[in-house]
Fold:
Amino acid sequence: MSASRSLQIDLPGPDDTAAAAHRLAPHLRAGDCVLLTGTLGAGKTHFARALIQKRLSDQGLWEDVPSPTYTLVQIYDDTLCEIWHADLYRLTGPDEIIELGLEDAFDTAITLIEWPDRLGDSAPSNALCITLDMNSDSRRLIAKWDDPRLAMLAPKND
Structure:
């Protein structure tokens, strides 16, 4: 396997985070997994919500997209494929992943996983890894993926 490509994007505000998600959304397909890492409040749920709402709106659909912190998994259907949004923060170990059905979803759906460290060895090796890094005055998205679609995250130069 070749080395992962990487990309860094400054995200001055929440609209920039949503814009990055909007740029990526149409290029994902069933079997793609996005692993979202970052501290509490870094924008993981905001990114996932924006991506899901963009996929739905592109098909003329709308649905409220709550955080799956308490439900653990929310499933959406954009008519092209299912989108699974999982927040694994409350899990205590990788054995609980089996109960959620995520391993099957990795093959058949777009999966967006917050707190992917809880997956242990179950994390797909071909996943898009996004880290949302923040300090007191800015955020940065750092993405790694061995796929040319990684470039779709980058802002277009006007």
